Recover the amino acids of this structure.
């Protein structure tokens, strides 16, 4: 049970600088997720904290202990860091039974046999592998192997648990189950969890706080899940967390227009935002389900339906608005209540329910993921 | 600094240094010495001698023969190999699985023992088949003469075609069937598909197999020695042997040997280079994901004839020679007919328990093979670990050095080892068992490296890292995790070296002394001395040991798949 | 006259009946999907249409011409069927460049060189590969390889295109894009599509009509919207979209969730006549349940997960655990009491899970 703190940590491979000047504090007992596209450096950070890699700059603390420091020439090897690690490919040893896998950390700590046995069986029970302790990994399913890895990581009562995309090799149903088990285990033991993933759904579901990183290794935003989702700091975060639309804005004749079109923006824009729009500083972001479509003339914002796709419970529209195509999603029931559904080529009115404002600089590079 | 030696970083450096040292001493230096001795005399480039030796009619003829034999063997092996591979993988031939196993048997048998058997069957006057046919048709002379270029080519083909067969059958089976199905739906019939799709995609495998055959044939001693030297037909390895043997190991002869060896080396290098090109061109991802069966050609009327043909082929090329060896080996005298009263186990008893020469040969081979296999297994593991797991710069040197002798002919290694260990650096091992031992290590290290590397690559990094995260030091994780998991690979490496070392002839024929004969040498010597029956008896003992060894390997590799 | 007709098509592998008396008729120009879990027989059916497998019973005809028939003992090999086909693993030949890959079917048919050139270039342009004629497949991405396969399939201007899970090996974003590309091609060229997939979202998005099958048997054939709105049985309901199956008990004409007599009964609902007896299964979608403080069947939230635009709950009611997804901003914590109102219910007899 400990804090983890990284101070100005950097890691370079040859000439490629994966992360630089990276500082963050993960609080004792929290479930903290590093979320980002592949190649953003999140796994590297995990490996630095675990000790499998050496930083090329900066310092890393686990609890009060300095475990890695370039300046002070300190590097405590992984085996001395009191960590538990769960790998993406489970890394369950194929030549050892479930029991032998899980008891191994205790053997390394030279815990007396009786106590080791007791703790091992408790860990095995805790992950619901009760009667399977004598099985070999090849006799287990993917989900069961992952639980062995979990039990093995927990049994030594580590200060921190590091999980590297542990669920990506499981099918959708199992992933949901295991997500829940990980959260439950954390609540029971109070261990600090560092989780690494590219899947924003998992991150939202299990984390106390999330750090979103982009491809250059920079942290874009840190915060609890609902804050990241509701108040994204920039277009990159907004786009990463779900399907997104970006609407350029023009200021003409004293009104806000949808950029590149004749449609005024039908939305109550706050005054301070109006100023910034006037100075061409902003672009609007909008989720597909935060847009209403109307057959009639009630909205001045006009578009044309480009493509209609029925996805069962939702209808997905591509709507040509000005120079671009935005995506709108409606619940089938809502569409039904509105009367006739829309068809390709229909003119349509748009009402925005919730717009977010982002700075309009170099949008394309930022949003590249 | 000292702390580093005991840290992670230090271990890597030590391992790397030791590995490089071993490989340099055992592998690189001998080869370099050959080139040096061939090219330089008293320090200056000696092209005059080189040209003189090369233009001597003997040498020139040996070169020519080598090329003719290699070309012929490659050609016929390719045809045979591709035909049977296609038959077994792409038609509805019955008993396919059995056929696959049977076609691979020639791999196990030493070609020179096969040559011995064919000599017994088809030598012009004393050959059993010749005698029978002459008697049957009332001929004066004999129908077949095995002591010829064609005889050599035929026998080598019989034992080398599995190289091509294996490559092509494997590739055909692993090929994504939708590649052919998409051709079919595009309108192409079977013939068109084979011509335009299957064969082009198979070309890399065919070429890889063919090049292997060419390399092996160029470097091969046994078959030309048994079937060619009688009539003065030499290839390079037999020529080298003849020169050295006749001159009693004179320096001039050794020099000639080095020059000829250099030619072999260059040829081997060329073949390696070609193979690399072919492999690069064949960089296709032809391997199937789903396990769907490929389209099989229905043989219909041809089914039985082709089956019979295949069985006949195996009978003639595998069963017949092997049976001959065992039968002749139990004859009381050579040349008499195979009746029960003419056969006994007395020869066997004599060879195994009474005659010192053969007893020694058997024990020598066993010790040398065991020793070489053990040493290569351990050092191979060490070096493989350095290459695969320790991400140190310069490990490409290791890889290169390790795999170098893979294609270096046994003759060349023997010469190199002679040059290095006959007093040049203060140690003289010539005529002792040690020189053969070292030659074996040089020759077979590559096998062990390949097998161990393959096993190590299966052990993903995360398995070791998981152990480290559980509190194990680097050494503990090696002991508890890595070694148990690569044990099967290590055992495979052991046998991969043990069996070939046990039965080989090409290398030890240049290195043996009066008390250090190997089984191969003993069989060859017996044959040279006209002791055909005893040669056959010893050969049958060798065959039994080999077959038993193969079965043991099968048993071990099968249990590996189950448990671990 | 329908364009593609399958009549009582049956295929056995040993004892297993992989396809069981399958009959469908597909009109010209329709995009028709076959949807089902792996092993359900959809790929086998497609392969029988293509001619890679021969049927054991039944008849397959295209445009009135018989291709396979057990009655007439007739079987036309694939190379004579003039289909365009795209495979899951692309099946693009690595030793031929893009141009030669696409031109292959035309070259086989020995068309005049000028025509081959023209058709190949047209196909290449239509699939967005213009400029890559001389490149080799291994230099291209998966998406582009699949486009080569598409171009090759349309080069001969087929009347029927067979697609066997063509997008499964592509990443999700690309999959969506290529769906539209395929539909656009269909619009331009007017061929009939038979599409095999295990991804219900894909089938729903692409098809004019689709069938859902399992263990060789067709459960339902209809438009995607109808199948979603009116699934014929439990299998179809559960295969298309998320689902809850809740056993209920009927007492004194009131519907109670099994094991939850004290949770209240379902108001605003009556049992349809087809359901007899005291027990039935209530089927509903997680996003068609309203979660409120009161006014419905009482339950306890046992799991609450934030998914961004939705909240995903597990609610215990009686013996059942009901999954609810809401995009309302009313949030429930684990352990809280709540009440469920079902907005749309389908009824199935019995209570087997």
């Amino acid at each position: 049970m400990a804090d983890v703190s990284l101070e100005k940590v950097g890691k370079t491979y040859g000439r490629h600088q994966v992360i630089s000047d990276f500082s963050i504090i993960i609080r004792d007992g929290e479930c903290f997720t590093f979320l980002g596209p592949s190649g953003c450096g999140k796994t590297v950070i995990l490996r630095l904290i675990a000790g499998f890699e050496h930083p090329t700059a900066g310092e890393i603390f686990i609890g009060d202990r300095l475990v890695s420091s370039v300046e002070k020439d300190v590097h405590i090897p992984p085996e001395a860091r009191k960590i538990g690690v769960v790998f993406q490919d489970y890394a369950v040893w194929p030549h050892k039974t479930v029991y032998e896998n899980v008891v191994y950390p205790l053997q390394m700590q030279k815990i007396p046999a009786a106590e080791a046995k007791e703790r091992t069986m408790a860990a095995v029970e805790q992950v619901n592998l009760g009667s399977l302790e004598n099985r070999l990994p090849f006799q287990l399913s993917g989900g069961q192997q992952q639980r062995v890895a979990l039990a093995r990581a927990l049994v030594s009562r580590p200060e921190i648990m590091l999980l590297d995309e542990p669920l990506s090799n499981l099918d959708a149903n199992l992933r949901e189950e295991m997500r829940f088990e990980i959260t439950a285990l954390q609540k029971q033991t109070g261990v600090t969890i560092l989780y690494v993933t590219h899947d924003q759904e998992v991150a939202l579901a299990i984390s106390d706080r999330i750090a979103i990183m982009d491809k250059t290794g920079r942290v874009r935003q840190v915060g609890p899940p609902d804050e990241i989702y509701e108040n994204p700091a920039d277009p990159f975060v907004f786009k990463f967390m779900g399907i997104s639309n970006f609407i350029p804005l023009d200021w003409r004749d004293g009104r806000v227009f949808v950029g590149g079109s004749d449609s005024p923006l039908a939305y109550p824009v706050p005054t301070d935002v109006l100023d910034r729009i006037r100075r061409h500083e902003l672009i609007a972001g909008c989720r597909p389900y935060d847009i209403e479509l109307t057959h009639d003339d009630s909205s001045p914002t006009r578009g044309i339906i480009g493509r209609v796709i029925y996805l069962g419970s939702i209808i997905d529209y591509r709507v040509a608005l000005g120079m671009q195509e935005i995506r709108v999603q409606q619940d089938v029931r809502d569409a039904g209540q509105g009367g006739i559904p829309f068809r390709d080529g229909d003119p349509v009115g748009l009402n925005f329910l919730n717009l977010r404002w982002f700075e309009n600089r170099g949008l394309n590079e930022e949003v590249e993921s | 600094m000292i702390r580093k030696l005991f840290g992670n970083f230090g271990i890597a450096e030590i391992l790397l240094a030791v590995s490089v040292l071993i490989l340099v001493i055992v592998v690189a230096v001998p080869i370099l010495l050959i080139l040096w001795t061939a090219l330089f005399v008293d320090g200056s480039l000696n092209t005059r001698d080189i040209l003189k030796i090369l233009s001597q009619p003997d040498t020139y003829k040996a070169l020519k023969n080598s090329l003719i034999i290699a070309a012929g063997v490659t050609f016929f092996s390719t045809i045979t190999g591709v035909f049977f591979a296609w038959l077994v993988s792409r038609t509805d031939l019955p008993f396919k699985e059995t056929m696959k196993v049977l076609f691979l048997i020639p791999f196990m048998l030493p070609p020179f023992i096969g040559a011995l058997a064919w000599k017994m069957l088809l030598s012009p006057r004393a050959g059993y088949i010749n005698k029978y046919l002459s008697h049957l048709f009332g001929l004066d002379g004999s129908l077949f003469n095995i002591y010829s270029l064609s005889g050599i080519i035929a026998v080598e083909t019989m034992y080398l075609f599995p190289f091509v067969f294996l490559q092509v059958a494997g590739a055909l089976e692993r090929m994504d069937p939708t590649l052919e199905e998409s051709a079919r739906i595009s309108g192409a019939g079977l013939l068109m598909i084979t011509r335009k799709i299957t064969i082009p995609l198979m070309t890399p495998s065919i070429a890889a197999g063919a090049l292997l055959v060419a390399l092996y044939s160029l470097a091969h001693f046994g078959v030309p020695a048994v079937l060619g030297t009688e009539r003065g037909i030499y290839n390079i390895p037999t020529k080298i042997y003849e020169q050295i043997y006749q001159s009693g190991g004179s320096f001039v002869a050794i020099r000639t040997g080095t020059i000829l060896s250099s030619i072999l080396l260059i040829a081997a290098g060329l073949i390696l280079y070609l193979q690399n090109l072919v492999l690069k061109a064949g960089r296709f991802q032809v391997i199937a994901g789903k396990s769907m069966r490929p389209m099989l050609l229905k043989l219909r009327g041809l089914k039985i004839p082709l089956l019979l043909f295949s069985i006949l082929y195996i009978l003639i090329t595998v069963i017949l020679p092997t049976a001959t060896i065992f039968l002749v080996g139990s004859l009381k005298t050579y040349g008499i007919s195979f009746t029960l009263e003419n056969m006994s186990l007395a020869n066997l008893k004599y060879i195994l328990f009474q005659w010192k020469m053969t007893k020694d040969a058997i024990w020598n081979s066993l010790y040398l093979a065991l020793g070489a296999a053990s040493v290569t297994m351990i050092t191979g593991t060490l070096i493989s670990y350095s290459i695969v797991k320790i991400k140190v710069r310069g490990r490409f040197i290791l890889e290169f050095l390790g795999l170098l002798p893979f294609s270096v002919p046994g003759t060349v290694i023997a010469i190199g080892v002679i040059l290095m260990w006959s007093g040049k650096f203060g140690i003289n091992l010539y005529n002792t068992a040690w020189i053969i031992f070292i030659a074996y290590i040089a020759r077979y290290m590559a096998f062990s490296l390949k097998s161990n590397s393959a096993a190590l690559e299966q052990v993903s990094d995360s398995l070791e890292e998981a152990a480290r995260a559980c509190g194990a030091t680097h050494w503990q994780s090696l002991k508890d995790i890595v070694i148990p998991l690569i044990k099967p690979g290590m055992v495979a490496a052991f046998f991969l070296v043990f069996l070939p070392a046990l039965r080989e002839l090409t290398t030890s024929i240049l290195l043996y002394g009066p008390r250090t004969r190997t089984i191969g040498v003993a069989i060859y010597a017996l044959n040279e001395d006209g002791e055909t029956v005893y040669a056959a008896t010893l050969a049958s003992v060798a065959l039994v040991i080999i077959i038993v060894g193969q079965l043991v390997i099968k048993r071990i590799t099968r249990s590996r798949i189950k448990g671990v | 006259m329908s364009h593609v007709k399958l009549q009582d098509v049956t295929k056995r592998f040993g004892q297993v009946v992989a396809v069981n008396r399958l009959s469908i008729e597909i009109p010209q120009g329709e995009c028709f999907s076959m949807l089902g879990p792996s092993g359900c027989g959809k790929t086998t059916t497609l392969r029988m249409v293509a001619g890679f497998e021969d049927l054991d019973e039944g008849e397959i005809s295209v445009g009135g011409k018989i291709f396979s028939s057990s009655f007439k003992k007739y079987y036309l090999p694939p190379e004579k069927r003039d289909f365009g086909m795209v495979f899951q693993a692309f099946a693009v030949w690595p030793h031929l460049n893009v141009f030669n890959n696409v031109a292959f079917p035309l070259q086989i048919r020995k068309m005049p060189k000028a025509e081959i050139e023209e058709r190949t270039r047209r196909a290449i342009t239509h699939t967005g590969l213009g400029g890559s004629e001389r490149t080799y497949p291994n230099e291209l991405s998966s998406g582009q390889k699949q486009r080569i396969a598409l171009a090759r399939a349309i080069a001969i201007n087929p009347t029927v295109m067979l697609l066997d899970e063509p997008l499964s090996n592509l990443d999700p974003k690309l999959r969506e894009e290529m769906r539209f590309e395929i539909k656009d091609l269909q619009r331009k060229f007017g061929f009939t599509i038979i599409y095999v997939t295990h991804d219900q979202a894909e089938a729903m998005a692409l098809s004019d009509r689709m069938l859902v099958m399992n263990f060789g048997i067709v459960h339902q054939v209809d438009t995607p919207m109808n199948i979603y709105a009116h699934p014929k049985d439990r299998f179809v309901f559960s295969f298309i979209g998320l689902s809850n199956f809740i056993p209920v008990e009927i007492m004194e004409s009131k519907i109670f969730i099994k094991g939850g007599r004290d949770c209240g009964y379902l108001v605003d609902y009556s049992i349809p006549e087809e359901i007899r007896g005291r027990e039935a299964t209530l089927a509903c979608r997680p996003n068609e349940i309203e979660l409120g403080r009161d006014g419905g069947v009482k339950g306890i939230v046992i799991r609450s997960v934030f998914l961004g635009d939705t909240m995903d709950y597990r609610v215990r009611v009686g013996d059942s655990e009901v999954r609810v997804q809401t995009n309302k901003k009313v949030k429930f914590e684990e352990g809280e009491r709540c009440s469920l109102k079902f907005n749309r219910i389908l009824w199935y007899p019995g209570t087997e899970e």
Observations:
- Chain B has a mean pLDDT of 83.
- The CA atoms of residues 265 and 461 of chain B lie 38 Å apart.
- The first strand of chain B starts at residue 40 and ends at 41.
